[in-house]
Write a structure and sequence with these properties.
26 helices; alpha+beta; 854 residues; 4-stranded antiparallel sheet; Multidrug efflux transporter AcrB transmembrane fold
């Protein structure tokens, strides 16, 4: 195993020599590849919708799409208007103007509903009249006091168009569900002057239907906001909420934050690397390579026609964490070697030979961990695993190929170090002190570490998963305040949609079915379980009761469901012929299926799944043998999606743990040492989860994404430590010296990358959303704890376990080829001889114990 490692190291060194001899050709080829991939980025689309997180063939997504095709959009925008008195002429007139302005100016609109055009069903003799509530007002005078009484006693209006106390009026803005796109050739044919040359109607391709995109959702919300701003006033306060609004606010702020904080993070990384390396190349090249890898990955996503999703927005942070670490490990060795007076090409080859295998193995473990996500039941998590792996692979390829070429063509000033002066840099002093402490107090360190893990497990038991759409927004944000205001005063803003399908024509005319629906509606309105309650149930029964009352001289005693099937069919037919299209929106054309809309508040999404399941079970019980039951809508799908995300990520992390363990064993070449090395990997994750549990933090979708970065960085640093420790222990037979030598080589890069990345993620504490704050803080904390684990806990563990680990001691040089005379590597103050003609041969330092042994 050791000989194989040295051969691979030699291969990397020789590859670096070949690149350095042809740097321009290498860079031209790489830039052609990068340019081809980046050229596809403009074609990349964004889909952060919840339905977009599901696979195209997922049954829940198919059900939801069928619902939208049949009944239209279920995601509405709600404008709540609060005035001193809504039922006076001035405010009612302003409400009407506001309503008509929305109808006129909002694009992609299906309808706007409010008190202005609310359905009023009444009878005049044997005639059924269905008209808008304020159809002819103010042309015809209206008794406003009587109007108020009528509205507040109409159950159809309450908690939809008016609050129960009559202080808040609402406008419900419903966008269309889908748009149709005509074939470009057919579209242009419509503008041809000569109709003989145009495509005949019969030969045209049918227009392609697609659901409203993020772009169109933004157009709708922006238009509503523009109209709202004109009418907003102290005595006409307008609050705005609804799924499209929350989605647009989240998306716009997320994009803005991503642009801002990506730049800030890059500046932080640039300045930090420049400070650590004190060279421009050390700051520019890692960022350049990572940025090229990121853009190339986005290009691959565009080629594969995969959109950016809720989960893939973590890719920039993830690739920055993994990609920069690879480059920094190589640069740390290169600059060290170069400063000792060796030729630049020799130093490049030496650095890549020293770190190449470890960098490849760390990338492979990260890829293996990410690929475990590809089996997820959610397509967005699967895509994160697949394209995260592509990004890691590209970052690796760009690093080992482009970095040597860039260094070869860059004039780099040699800063020689006087090794005999006895002066050490501050970082070296710190690293040596840490190494001496960790290897000198292994029992105490391991005992404290195990105690902390046990304590963390205890607090982890209090950790809960919660993804509340409201809690994404900070309390002071107007979006959250409006949502809470409307949610509280109109008894909810979300909905669970239930489809009852009798599977037979006119099956909905059955009195027993409609009576059961009536009884169940009353039962649902009695549900109260903490945050969960049912604010309203809308169904075809509302129309039928109104019609029955109107045809019985408007007597409220007849606000009931008729008992005869023929009478039900006749009354519904009369309503259809009245000119209103309201029935079309809740039943199909054959009266075989109908929708029941159940209004609920925005609550934690797992509670949404709970109430959706409860509703489904109640409907199944009531309609067993009468109709099949399907529960759908955006709210239930959100609950199901988040629950699936939890299951998928949990399974993926378990699979990733076992895969990474196996690869760790392969890299270090020892089963016991490989298993032991997993302790520092799980320690930071356990500790952070314990901290979250202790302080009452909860795990949401953003917190789940912390794990993907933790897998990439924690494992990489541990692998670098274990790989280098085994190398130096095989050479010296001295555990404490091996720990010190490891920290003075790989440890420098580990410290640089960890501190830089932690500082970068902590900048997210200044982002807009609380979820982003949590993501930045806990990701930075994981990185710092992982650094502590690899610097303190890992050395203590290996020192304690050495008597049980059979690590071969190679106390003599192992010639393996023309590049390296032996596996010993140069660190500050440590040297080795080389038989390569391009190497500058240096004599061992007399005070160096390692050199004396070799």
């Amino acid at each position: 195993m050791a000989t194989l490692k040295y051969k691979v190291e030699k291969l990397f060194g020789n590859m670096a020599l070949g690149i350095c001899r042809n740097p321009i050709k290498t860079l031209i080829l790489m830039f052609l590849l990068i340019g081809a991939l980046i050229s596809q980025v403009p074609k990349l689309t964004v889909d952060t919708s919840f339905e977009g997180m599901l696979h195209v063939d997922d049954p829940k997504r198919i059900e939801y799409n069928e619902f939208r095709d049949q009944f239209g959009q279920d995601r509405v925008i709600i404008c709540a208007v609060q005035t001193p008195e809504i039922f006076d002429a001035e405010h009612l007139a302003k409400l009407k103007d506001f309503h008509h302005a929305l109808e006129k100016e909002v694009p992609h609109l299906d309808e706007v509903k409010s008190l202005i055009n609310a359905r009023r069903t009444r009878g005049e003799g044997d005639t059924l009249i269905v008209e808008d509530l304020l159809k002819d007002w103010p042309e015809k005078p209206v008794d406003l006091a009587a109007l108020r009484t009528y509205v507040l006693h109409n159950p159809v209006y309450l908690n939809d168009y008016i609050s129960e106390d009559g202080t808040i009026a609402a406008l419900i803005i419903k966008p269309i569900a889908a748009v149709e796109e005509m074939d470009e050739a057919d579209l242009m044919a419509d503008f041809e002057e000569n109709s003989a040359d145009s495509t005949p109607e019969s030969e045209r391709k049918p227009a392609e239907k697609r659901y409203l995109s993020k772009k169109e959702n933004k157009e709708v919300v922006d238009a509503v906001n523009r109209v709202m701003e004109r009418y907003q006033a102290p005595d006409f306060r307008i609050a705005l909420t609804g799924g499209p609004v929350l989605e647009e606010v989240y998306d716009s702020h997320t994009k803005k934050n991503m642009r801002t904080f990506t730049v800030i993070m890059m500046i932080v990384v640039f300045l930090s690397l420049g400070l650590f390396f004190r060279r421009l190349s050390g700051a520019v090249y890692p960022l350049f390579i990572v940025y090229m890898a990121l853009l190339s990955t986005l290009g691959v996503m565009a080629i594969c026609k995969v959109s950016i999703s809720v989960f893939s927005v973590v890719l920039p942070s993830f690739l920055m964490a993994v990609g920069i670490a690879d480059a920094v490990h190589i640069l740390a060795i290169f600059y060290r070697r170069y400063q000792q007076g060796h030729a630049k090409i020799d130093s490049i080859a030496f650095a890549l030979g020293h770190t190449g295998l470890a960098v490849v193995m760390t990338s492979l473990t990260t890829i293996a961990g990410l690929l475990s996500f590809s089996m997820s039941e959610l397509s967005s998590i699967g895509h994160l695993g697949i394209f995260g792996s592509v990004g890691v692979a590209l970052a690796l390829i760009y690093t080992v190929i482009m970095l040597p070429a860039l260094l070869a063509i860059t004039p780099i000033k040699m800063k020689k170090i006087n090794a005999d002066s006895g002066k050490k840099k501050v970082m070296d002093t710190i690293l040596v002190a840490i190494g001496n402490f960790s290897s000198g107090n292994p029992k105490k360190i391991v005992a404290v570490g195990m105690a902390l893990m046990a304590l963390s497990v205890a607090f982890m038991l209090d950790l809960k998963f919660s993804h509340h759409q409201r809690n994404i927004f900070p309390p002071e944000m107007i979006t959250r305040q409006d949502e809470e205001f409307i949610n509280g005063n109109l008894k909810g803003v979300a909905a669970v949609e239930v489809i009852l399908d009798t599977r037979k024509e006119n099956g909905l005319y059955q009195p027993e079915l409609l009576h059961r629906l009536d009884r169940l509606s009353e039962e649902l309105l009695g549900i109260r379980d903490g945050e969960i309650y049912i604010g309203k149930v809308r169904s075809m029964n509302d129309i039928l009761k109104e019609t029955n009352q109107a045809l019985h001289a408007n007597d409220p005693a007849f606000y009931t469901i008729p008992d005869e099937q023929d009478l039900i069919a006749q009354e519904l037919l009369l309503f259809e012929n009245s000119g209103s299209d309201d029935l079309e929106k809740i039943v199909d054309s054959t009266f075989s299926k109908t929708r029941v809309s159940i209004k609920i508040p925005y609550v934690e999404v797992l509670l949404t799944e709970k109430v959706s399941d409860d509703i489904y079970n109640r409907f199944r019980h009531y309609f067993d043998g009468l109709a099949s039951v399907t529960v759908t809508g955006m709210s239930p799908m959100m609950g199901k999606t988040v629950a699936a995300a939890i299951r998928s990520m949990s399974k993926s992390y378990i699979v990733a743990f076992f895969v990474i363990t196996a690869m760790m064993i392969i890299l270090v070449g020892d089963v016991k040492m490989g298993l032991l090395s997993m302790v520092p990997n799980i320690f930071p994750i356990f500790l952070v989860m314990g901290i979250m549990g202790a302080f009452g933090a909860y795990i949401d979708l953003n917190a789940l994404m912390i794990g993907s970065i933790a897998i990439g960085l924690v494992v990489d640093d541990t692998m670098h430590f274990m790989y280098n420790f085994r190398r130096y222990y095989e050479l010296t037979g001295d555990a404490r010296a091996a720990v010190r030598d490891t920290l003075l080589s790989a440890g420098r890069a580990m410290m640089i990358t960890s501190l830089v990345l932690a500082a970068s993620f902590f900048t997210l504490l200044f982002a807009t959303f609380t979820s982003t704050h949590k993501f930045g803080f806990f990701t930075g904390l994981v990185i710092l704890i992982a650094l502590f684990a690899d610097f303190v806990m890992a050395p203590a563990l290996v020192v304690l376990a050495l008597p049980y680990l059979k690590i071969k001691n190679l106390m003599s040089p192992q010639p393996i080829g023309p590049l390296f005379a032996q596996p010993a590597l140069v660190i500050d103050g440590y040297t080795e001889k080389s038989i390569s003609p391009i190497h500058n041969v240096r004599e061992p330092d007399n005070d160096n114990a390692l050199s004396r042994r070799i």
